[in-house]
Amino acid sequence: MAADIIDGKAFAATMREKVADHVSRLKADHGITPGLAVVLVGEDPASQVYVRNKRKQTVECGMQSFEHRLSPETPEADLLALVKRLNADPAVHGILVQLPLPPHMNADAVINAIDPAKDVDGFHISNVGLLGTGQKSMVPCTPLGCLMMLRDRLGSLSGLDAVVIGRSNIVGKPMAQLLLGESCTVTIAHSRTRDLAEVVRRADIVVAAVGRPRMVPGSWIKPGATVIDVGINRIAVPETGKTRLVGDVDFDSCAQVAGAITPVPGGVGPMTIACLLANTVTACCRANG
Ligand code: GUN
């Protein structure tokens, strides 16, 4: 195996320590405790796991956690009323409405009802616009975590060729904006991209965020490239009758060629929550001048 493994789990643990330090200073020096409200509508099993982890880590960092669980039949108006209350609550500095929402709800309307200053997901249209124009914004957690690992590994990213595979609002598009902000030459590839292999082969940085298990083989990777795997796909393992998590890149073959690669699990995933905690502290500091 040629590639270095980028240890997102260890990186995230260090970040959480820094967040916890910052929180204790805010408490000691200013009497302020950052607070994060997480809203979960429905019983999606994956969302329940994410929300539980977010709560646990929020509390472990010394912050206040406010959890709101609503039934899947909750009318959208009730969710909007809750968001309005959280917007007005001075103890709440960050608000996260877990996605996906049930089909009867308009996710855009709900996200855009969140006070942009408390939008720790960075999904509000104002934050999207600020990021796109290079202004100070709340930055979506998963792309932010990817960028931190890239900067840690590579230092300056200026002039590098970066390919982002996937064009979602949550990962692909903001990731491309962040890389552009670092002066990379950025390509966003997606399901309609012609000759994806050729596009990926040019890249010094590959960020895979398509949600298709092991879609990117090692033969697509430029030797020495840095590969960031955002995918979390659960697949069946027929030999054991169990399931396991794999990314969007074929780890074994890509690790033979890449210079560095994130594993799944233990790569991007832990960084996402660490960045959420950091964003909550940032929102708290901005709210308190
Ligand atoms: N569902 C999956 N990822 C995310 C995320 O980063 N934020 C929210 N709000 N929901 C999600």
From TrEMBL:
Q: Tell me, what does this protein do in biology?
A: Catalyzes the oxidation of 5,10-methylenetetrahydrofolate to 5,10-methenyltetrahydrofolate and then the hydrolysis of 5,10-methenyltetrahydrofolate to 10-formyltetrahydrofolate.
Claim: DNA repair is one of the keywords in the record: no
Q: Which UniProt keywords apply?
A: Amino-acid biosynthesis, Histidine biosynthesis, Hydrolase, Methionine biosynthesis, Multifunctional enzyme, NADP, One-carbon metabolism, Oxidoreductase, Purine biosynthesis
GO MF, one example = methenyltetrahydrofolate cyclohydrolase activity
Alphabetical GO CC annotations of the entry are: cytosol
Protein's recorded name:
Bifunctional protein FolD
Query: What do we know about how this protein assembles, alone or with others?
Result: Homodimer.
Sorted alphabetically, which HAMAP family does this protein's record hold? Answer: THF_DHG_CYH
State which gene encodes it.
Answer: folD
Q: Which residues form the Tetrahydrofolate dehydrogenase/cyclohydrolase catalytic domain?
A: 6-121
| Record field: catalytic activity | (6R)-5,10-methylene-5,6,7,8-tetrahydrofolate + NADP(+) = (6R)-5,10-methenyltetrahydrofolate + NADPH; (6R)-5,10-methenyltetrahydrofolate + H2O = (6R)-10-formyltetrahydrofolate + H(+)
What does the similarity note say?
Answer: Belongs to the tetrahydrofolate dehydrogenase/cyclohydrolase family.
Cross-referenced InterPro entries, in alphabetical order? Aminoacid_DH-like_N_sf, NAD(P)-bd_dom_sf, THF_DH/CycHdrlase, THF_DH/CycHdrlase_cat_dom, THF_DH/CycHdrlase_CS, THF_DH/CycHdrlase_NAD-bd_dom
Where NADP(+) binds, per the record, is at G166, R167, S168, I232
Keyword Oxidoreductase listed? The answer is: yes
Which pathway, per its entry? One-carbon metabolism; tetrahydrofolate interconversion
Record Pfam families: THF_DHG_CYH (PF00763), THF_DHG_CYH_C (PF02882)
Give the EC number(s) listed in the UniProt record.
Answer: 1.5.1.5, 3.5.4.9
Give residue ranges for domain Tetrahydrofolate dehydrogenase/cyclohydrolase NAD(P)-binding: 140-286
